[in-house]
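hiii so um. not sure if this is the right channel but i have a protein structure encoded as tokens and i wanna go backwards to a sequence. like what aa goes where. can anyone help
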């Protein structure tokens, strides 16, 4: 196995998970934003990821042909906004309801935890690959 390939895969995974955590943080920061520049409540954003080499098969992972993961796009969640009765709010409609962002605190916290764990797993993989490379160098002495 090519050690550089192992590093590249883990580094791409860490980069994508860091970006995912940034997006989740942005979602949490806007959990109460009822009006954006478009005039609508904030819409939750999500990251779409795929293998860096689309079209490769699972067997390619065994031969070392994979090179990691990439971000395809950042999309907005199209689930409906939440409605809350707050007649005194400046964004309230004629019925007294405001539309709130489609961000769920519980979902975002779970997503943050999984992104953190995935990042930590990639760090562990880098450490292991480094240790293996150093051990391989010791064999040559």
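sure thing!! here u go:
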């Amino acid at each position: 196995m090519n050690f550089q390939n192992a590093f590249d895969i883990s580094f791409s995974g860490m980069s994508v998970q860091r970006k995912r955590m940034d997006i989740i943080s942005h979602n949490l920061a806007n959990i109460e934003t009822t009006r954006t520049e478009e005039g609508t409540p904030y819409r939750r954003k999500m990251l779409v990821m795929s293998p860096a080499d689309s079209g490769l098969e699972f067997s390619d992972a065994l031969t070392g042909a994979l090179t990691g993961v990439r971000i395809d796009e950042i999309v907005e969640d199209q689930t409906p906004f939440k409605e809350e009765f707050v007649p005194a709010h400046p964004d309230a409609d004629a019925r007294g309801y405001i539309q709130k962002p489609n961000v769920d605190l519980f979902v975002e916290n779970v997503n943050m935890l999984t992104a953190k764990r995935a990042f930590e797993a990639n760090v562990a993989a880098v450490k292991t690959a480094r240790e293996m490379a150093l051990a391989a160098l010791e064999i040559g002495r």
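oh and The beta strands are 45-51, 69-76, 82-85, 97-100.
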